[in-house]
Specification:
GO molecular function, one term: DNA binding
Pfam families: TetR_N
Structural class: mainly alpha
Organism: Oceanicoccus sagamiensis
Helix content: over 70%
Keywords: DNA-binding
Strand content: under 5%
CATH topology of the largest domain: Tetracycline Repressor, domain 2
Number of strands: 0
Largest sheet: none
Number of helices: 11
Protein name: HTH tetR-type domain-containing protein
Radius of gyration: 24 Å
């Protein structure tokens, strides 16, 4: 007696494949967000993959499906954190009112970076950088990631500020003046809580005036020698 042929399995529909990929991506992002949340609540050293799974509300099997090891998870989480940081910073830049010029525009850009530095995620990033000093595995990850973040941020800023389109050396010099001054100010505020609003405001005003000098420099002064060929100096190993 002839037997019936077994039913041929149906190929998953295109919509089904897309949904599975989207679902997998959403789960991955949930894990990475949970890892960052774990950094905030527990710190890098105490955080385990089991705790991340609990924070994310997923099984350990689902965790292992996406990340085989803690190192792989940490690397992906720091990259995820960097994308969030870039998003915050460029949102701040894009929120600067149109039509500002001169000192007002400089101050608005200074304020945009200062606002960025006071975000909780920036503090998390700074804590990871400090922890990396005594955690070799984390140091290996974060050294590469920070360099990539810095390069991406510089090129993105250069592409978004039309007034520096032909003067990258001057812009990168200004970026470093801003970073080194404001990040030091932010660390003092985080660690010591000694800086009141009046002191911070004076520092922001002073930085604005310093940047204005660099912006208006005609390229023939002692100041201009500091940012001449600065892009190449900055990229030196």
């Amino acid at each position: 007696m002839p037997t019936k042929n077994a039913a041929t399995p149906k190929e998953p529909s295109e919509d089904g494949v897309k949904w599975q990929a989207q679902k997998s991506s959403m789960t991955r992002d949930r894990i990475l967000d949970a890892t960052i949340d774990g950094f905030i609540k527990l710190g890098y050293s105490k955080l385990t993959t089991t705790q991340v799974a609990d924070i994310a509300g997923i099984s350990r099997g689902a965790m292992r499906h996406h990340f085989d090891s803690k190192k792989e998870l940490i690397q992906a989480a720091i990259e995820h954190l960097h994308k969030k940081l870039l998003g915050i910073y460029f949102h701040n830049l894009s929120s600067i009112p149109q039509g500002l010029t001169g000192r007002e525009l400089i101050r608005a850009r200074v304020d945009a970076y200062w606002s960025y530095l006071n975000e909780d995620l920036v503090l998390v990033h700074q804590e990871l950088c400090m922890t990396a000093r005594t955690e070799p595995e984390l140091k290996d990850i974060i050294t590469v990631m920070v360099k990539a973040l810095d390069d991406q941020a510089r090129q993105s800023v250069l592409g978004s500020l039309d007034d520096f389109e032909e003067d990258a050396d001057r812009l990168f010099f200004i970026i470093d003046i801003t970073r080194f001054n404001l990040e030091a100010l932010a660390r003092g505020k985080w660690q010591l809580s000694l800086y009141d609003d009046q002191l911070v405001e004076r520092q922001l005003q002073h930085l604005t005036l310093c940047i204005e000098q660099v912006v208006n420099d005609d390229g023939t002064t002692d100041l201009s020698k500091l940012f001449a060929n600065y892009q190449n100096i900055n990229q030196s190993p």
